[in-house]
Specification:
By secondary structure, the protein is an all-alpha fold. It contains twelve helices and two strands, in the order H-E-H-H-H-H-E-H-H-H-H-H-H-H. About 30% of the residues are buried.
């Protein structure tokens, strides 16, 4: 895993030893914080466009917003997340933070798990019921008044505050023991396959991603997460691709979900072809009994 600790593999493709600066800074939280994946495409301030007849803001569509509100995470009897989506999201946050910090994902995960809570720290478990793993950004929304735009922005700010509260909380208070074990399995798989998957990703991603890897760390981490889950844990590729696309919709911008979908389908197709070829070769090597 030495590669992840170097700036070269940190960006997955950066081959020069020249140091570079990331343009987004980690968001600081009071407790063992991890940088949150940036939600690029955050709604523009409607007051800037107040002179226009209508106000267009980049926010969640009204229909998708109300629909996403109904899709709450699964909570177990202890009041903790028990959905595999939550584990994949946590694994993504850990790998993303490890890349930004140049550290080992598994060690970072263990550090978060075993960190001592700050004196007086209290976590409101009610926020888990309000947290929505399926809250996606949507197309531009046109509002007819500043008041309507302000209301949408206020709702978005409330959701962001809930995300910050949940994702920065001690994992043992948020995730079930089963999910934490699953998260660790995902991280171990990512570490084991990192170097080989860097070469695979280099073949399937578009050239503009390879030309600006420092700005695509999040997207590349999603690919590493998905590929490792398919190859090491053996999860059905249909499930993994859907989960990866949803993570891209949630945390990435623009065409990232579509590109990640295409990259993973190409990866799965090549993987299946390799398996068939290996099976064919093994059959040819079996000696015939006389």
């Amino acid at each position: 895993m030495e590669g992840i600790r170097s700036s070269c593999v940190l960006s997955c493709y950066y081959s020069s030893k020249t140091h570079f600066r990331l343009h987004h800074q980690p968001f600081e939280y009071p407790f063992m914080s991890l940088p949150l994946p940036p939600k690029r495409g955050y709604p523009a301030n409607p007051r800037i466009r107040s002179s226009l007849p209508t106000l267009a803001i980049q926010d969640q569509g009204q229909q998708s917003f109300h629909k996403s509100k109904e899709m709450l995470p699964k909570i177990d009897k202890s009041g903790r997340f028990c959905s595999p989506r939550a584990a994949r999201e946590l694994a993504l946050l850990i790998v993303y933070a490890a890349c930004l910090q140049g550290s080992d994902p598994i060690r970072l995960f263990e550090k978060r798990i075993n960190a001592t809570r700050e004196p007086g720290y209290e976590f409101d478990k009610a926020s888990l019921l309000q947290y929505n793993h399926m809250s996606f950004g949507g197309p531009p929304v046109t509002t007819q008044s500043i008041e309507e735009a302000d209301e949408l922005l206020h709702i978005d700010e409330q959701e962001s505050a809930i995300e910050a509260e949940v994702l920065s909380a001690p994992p043992k208070l948020v995730y079930s023991k089963l999910l934490l074990r699953f998260t660790r399995k995902l991280l171990v798989a990512i570490v084991d396959k990192w170097d080989s998957h860097v070469l695979v990703i280099d073949k399937v991603v578009p050239s503009n991603w390879k030309n600006e890897p420092a700005g695509r760390i999040l997207e590349l981490c999603i690919l590493h997460l998905a590929m490792s889950e398919v190859t090491v844990l053996g999860t059905l590729h249909q499930i993994v691709i859907n989960e990866a696309v949803d993570l891209a919709k949630r945390f990435c911008d623009g065409a990232a979900p579509r590109i990640i979908n295409g990259c993973l389908r190409t990866f799965v197709k090549d993987l299946a072809g390799t398996s068939i070829a290996q099976a064919s070769n093994s059959k040819q090597k079996v000696p015939l009994e006389v």
